[in-house]
Protein 1
Amino acid sequence: MLELAEDEATTLARWARRPSSPQSLALRSRIVLACAEGKTNNVVAGEIGVNPATVCKWRRRFVELRLDGLCDEPRPGAPRKIGDDQVEAVIVKTLSEQPVNATHWSSRDLAAQTGMTQSAVSRIWRAFGLKPWLTDGFKLSNDPLFIDKVRDVVAMYLNPPEAAVVFCVDEKTQVQALNRTQPVLPMRPAQPERQTHDYERHGTTSLFAALDLATGMVIHSMSQQHRTVEFVKFLRTIDRNVPEGLDVHVILDNVSTHKAPAVHTFLLRHPRFHLHFTPTYSSWLNLVERWFAEITTKLLQRSTHLSVRQLEAGITAWIETWNDDPRPYVWTKTADEILDKLARYCQAITVADDDEPTTKLAN
């Protein structure tokens, strides 16, 4: 009689009933489970509907190799037709050369140059993670106080001060009131919503927003101009909405309107306000940018407005709905983790600039 350990029986039962299991593995599991009940090969074959020789084969494989015996053995497959030298030539050509008539290689162009098939070039690119048609953007901060500012802002996120409110503040400027030149056609089965590619402009507005780090509530105001006067006015709006006795810490970027003399005058008259600046070219450090992405995706990208007043009313209604059930964003990265990741990135791009493609491939 075939005997099963408890963990083997559990694994076989899971393989036999799991929808994602290969049918061959599920069948073999059922055969072994039936054999473990003391049934003969012929009885098991009749119950499951297979040949007795099949039952005998998988019973023997399981006795010899246990669970590993039920899996298919690796098959050698056809011999390789593309050698390592050809693979290296494709990688080096992709990394170090450009075609005469384009800024980057296509798999067909490179196949024609190397004498290989287009599918072979595509497989090599996938194996090495190469996508010549794809570009990505980056911008390294040149702020001399970059490290100090990162530590200061992240400290506000991870260890906010007591008896204080932390706001992430920024402006979304030039929000356009747009209307399509023809009516929007609604979504239908098997057909998405359709809009004309062109639109009519009906003015712009600037959205000032302050995201409460602890609650996710948003204080906002809108103005058709974006100057220091409007920014100081917004700071007064924040001041009116924060109870007395609490300090106010404001995280914001380095634009000139945030550092003008009028702002310094406001800070002298309101000593409970403390400004924390993100490093230059590092708006990703300000959590309100994530909230701006939310309102852009869920409202501004697909909405239509016939006037600035209608646009501002729509934004206000959306923010009020947000504040009915606010969702605070949680920062998880420490300053050391951010700086270590940036150091690794700088080292990687430095090596990429200095090394030859053949050296990178060898490494």
Note: The chain has three domains: 6-70, 84-128, 146-186+194-332.
Protein 2
Amino acid sequence: MYDTSGTHSVCHTATPDNDISLRIAWLKGEVERAENRAATLRAETEWELAAAMRAPVNTEEAYAWFGTFLGLFPPFTIFVRVFGGGRVLDRILDDASLPWLALLLAMNAVCCVVGRKFGRVTGRSLGNPRERSWPAYLLISLLLGVAWAAVTGAAGGTPFFAIGAIFGAVFALPVAVATFPVFAVLHRIQSHGGMIEERDLWPMAFGIPLAASALIMSLGQ
């Protein structure tokens, strides 16, 4: 079982493998090529799914519509809660309140228009949602929501003797912080190649701001 002739000693060191560095380099190259092939395959699949859409909407336009409805429904609900009380119809029919009503409608219109324009800016900044990692994408969407709230809220509150810009931004901030990440997550899941099917967009762009409005209306009741 043992070699006792002295022709072979177990104490001899093994011959060094001079090719081990070459083998490791080859293995790393194979891993990188496999990862590149997988990334290429994923990209091709994304573009194929985008090309198969019947009514595709790019990220910029998707966020423009989301910003439109977010600038329309929640501000209107806030105005009703703050200035309407429980007798909204009586106040509207009161001639003395018509100038205030016109002012609030003007502020709501500004929020809607600016919300749409800056929503398009946020969508352009995000580009293809799947090109970023989830943590980076969520962080950017949250920061863009804060920026959207500052710009849209301030613009909407400016007609209220300018000082309303501060209150507008304050009221818009929690709404945007709560809704932008939700829309960003759903949009990324449903989009391919930076495009989303129109029928998938409307429930999100319309439904999320409407849900936020319902939540605002229910607070304190």
Note: Residues 56-218 form one domain.
Protein 3
Amino acid sequence: MKPILYLIESTDDRLEDSLPKGLWYRQKFTLGQLAQKFQVRYFTSDSRTFQSEMPEGVTHCFSPFHTSVYGIRHILYYLFLILSSVQWRGSQGVLHLIGVNIPFISLIKRLSDLNLVTSFHYNWAATTRMNYHFIQPKSLFSKFIQRSALKNSNVVICATLRLQKIAEEEYNCQKTIVLPNYVNTYMFFSSKPKHPWIVFVGRLHWSKGVDTLIKAFLLISDKIPQHELLIVGIGEEQGNLENMARGNANIHFLGPKPYSRVAEILNSAELFVLPSKTTEGHPRALIEAMMSGCKCMVSDVPGSSDVLIDAGTPEWIFPKDDPIALGDMLCKAICNPTALQREYAEKSFSDQIVLPAYLKILESWIIGQGPE
């Protein structure tokens, strides 16, 4: 019989949210890969079952206690995890925490008596404090929660070397492994010919800097009249951004798109921009755009800039919140093809390379102390 993988998502990742936004396909693919090796128990903070969406071998676990009230909903989910963990004790399995923002993980680990593997995809504590400016309780307690998740882990899977350094130096984690996010190479590949599209994919939140991208495009649109700016995603800033873009027929807000459609857009696009104002972890949209053969440019914030430096293309990093610099860079990029980013993505982020390594890490912590 296969061992059990208790896969715990944060409250930020609910199927109720990801399905309408077209983000579910990637996680479904990952779950299908995990189910080849494990009996997967997939825990989310949804208010109803999504078992019909699960791949074979995956059981969707959701709390019978739920409410739509923000904050209370989170607490009920944590209570559900704590109560469930008592039942896991004695099983042949492993806990796998996606992210570092689940409190009480030390209690959950103690009650279950299982090894804990944690995925550290971005510095949630630092990003939360920057994005919310201490106006929410999670900003005040974010570093404590992140510390608890990292310190109680038997091994921390870090998406980048920078995150590994944070885990080891700031949180004194003893066992860390660097393993980046993967790209599904069957979906993301370079199509020919490329269309004159400049693309952004992500949440329309002030921290993503989409206003900087729109300002830059408005500055240069008369110089590149054949190019269109495609903005994929939704968020609280959409109204303000649409007002800013009003009057320019070459700026298009496409809203949320299914994952397959996002892949089609990136595969056909010439340019991709990630103009973040605060920080990123290991941005999936960026590495997917690189695999798609887009010429990618990012702002000089931790996370996304690290990827382009590692890819050998630091010349495509611009000062954050600087539309003039971004506009100049866009004009130069249109005339300067590069294959370095795609080559780097193929050798570093291919699902055929990353996924087997990921499964091996999880398997090694079912019994004993994992790999030396």
Note: Residues 209 and 276 are 5 Å apart (CA to CA).
Protein 4
Amino acid sequence: MSLRIAARRVVASVAATAAAGTLALVAFSAPAGATGPASGSIVPGAASPVAPYTAGTPFDSGQSINIVVPANSAFAGSHLAVNVVECAAPNGVIPTSTTACDGLTIQGNTILPNADGSFTYPNYTVYALPNSISLGEVPGGPNCGSTSATECILYIGQNQNDFTQPHLWSQPFFVKANSNDLGANPGDGTPEVPFAIILPVAAMGLLGAVVVIRRRRATTHAS
């Protein structure tokens, strides 16, 4: 494969990634009155970190986050309260049993969605589970942590003891345990893997390919 073709493929890959991000933003920024996510759907960004935080790191146990839910068909027009609880979702798989959710993590205040089903609930606390420090728990319940096998998710719905009732899920996330549940090292809930360097590395590869191509052209013209 020539360097010119390789460079074109890198450009196409970076452009496709940027386009996908743009489409995702457009899809999430649906116009008013849109139906939105249906019951049982994952809502990207529903578990939203509060600034300041460190990107590319798990939430820190005891960290406060915002629950941000857009207009949706799950809660629209129901006028019923919604609960939020933390659940185990190994490998990011949505749980199918209510035993995967920890009732002690339920939010403190009542959540009444807007007419279109949307709402924002501030300062929800996420914990590494089971949690003996703040919740007085012993091993054996839902397990949420900072590994793929202990990935976490939030149930957002009308009855955490009945998954047939209207509900949504946050995006899966990770929570790092600590010794005090103070959330002193807040993150964005992503794993401690440097995924963020992928695009810069791709850009560096593109730059290198372009430099090589220009040098070859210069050599050709000189000869």
Note: The two ends are 24 Å apart (CA to CA).
